[in-house]
Amino acid sequence: MVCPNKEEADLVFGQLKFTVRRIYSSPPAHGAYIAADVMNSSELYALWQNEVYMMRDRIRAMRQKLYGVLTARIPDRDFTYFIKQRGMFGYTGLSVGQVRRLRDEFAVYLLDSGRMCVAGLNTSNITYVADALAEVLK
């Protein structure tokens, strides 16, 4: 927002903060209505449950593939933690320096803590990501 002076900018900013606060304090209810519809319909619930199972199985498959590629690239290192962990995210144990190297040299993004989004892996990128991980772990 462009204003002619600081005083007017401060007034506009105050109004924007007030507007945003109302939005965050009172989120829309339609998501809750959709969830209620799904939970109260045996057919929709079964469809939703099947989709959740498919997502879980895909994430498990990505963990297994990541484990397989890394184990093939660095056979003397134990990567079982990838298949023992559960959920959409995984902890790699990488240092901040290794994470930055992944980012700078391979455009693979993890949190500085070494946490990665396993759900973001797919059949098109998993070998590239695993090779990049193997390279920074050598």
Automatic annotation (TrEMBL):
Residues 13-133 form the Aminotransferase class I/classII large domain. The keyword Oxidoreductase does not apply. The keyword Lipid metabolism does not apply. It comes from the Bacteria. GO terms for molecular function: identical protein binding; L-tyrosine-2-oxoglutarate transaminase activity; pyridoxal phosphate binding. Its cofactor is pyridoxal 5'-phosphate. Keywords: Aminotransferase, Pyridoxal phosphate, Transferase. GO terms for biological process: L-phenylalanine biosynthetic process from chorismate via phenylpyruvate. Pfam families: Aminotran_1_2 (PF00155). GO terms for cellular component: cytosol. Belongs to the class-I pyridoxal-phosphate-dependent aminotransferase family. Homodimer. This is Putative 8-amino-7-oxononanoate synthase. It comes from Neisseria gonorrhoeae. The gene is tyrB_2.
